[in-house]
Amino acid sequence: MRSPLRPHPEAAPELGELSAHAGPEQLAGAAVAFAHGLVVQTLLDPGRFSEDAQVAPLDSFLASLVAS
User: Fold this and answer.
1) What span, in angstroms and rounded, lies between the C-alpha atoms of 57 and 12?
2) Rounded to an integer, what distance in angstroms lies between the CA atom of residue 8 and that of residue 59?
3) Which pTM was predicted?
4) Whole-angstrom Cα distance, residue 29 to residue 8?
5) Per-residue confidence band for 7, with pLDDT thresholds at 50, 70 and 90
């Protein structure tokens, strides 16, 4: 699952979209791990994880990666 994501964090620092503090493999792995965790939580407790409840932590996760 990481390989299709890897080109994005490879290109993002050059575009000023992500800081270069982590390597592309590490960022792709973190994105996959985050997504898997969110999916598991949603599957186990769908009543608590509406669409909005899923988008909010995703937005926070992505914001934490943005270059400052």
Assistant:
1) 21
2) 17
3) 0.72
4) 12
5) confident
Q: How many domains would you assign to the chain? A: 1
Provide the pLDDT for residue 24.
81
Dist CA 59 CA 15 (whole Å): 19
Question: What is the spatial distance between Cα 22 and Cα 50, in angstroms, rounded to a whole number?
Answer: 31
| Burial group, residue 9, by CB count within 10 angstroms (0-12, 13-18, 19+) | buried
CB 33 within 8 Å of CB 61 = no
Q: What is the distance between the alpha carbons of residues 32 and 9, in angstroms, rounded to a whole number?
A: 13
Share of the chain above pLDDT 70, in %: 91
| Closest to 20 measured CA to CA, from 60, 65, 64 | 65
Range of the domain at 50: 2-65
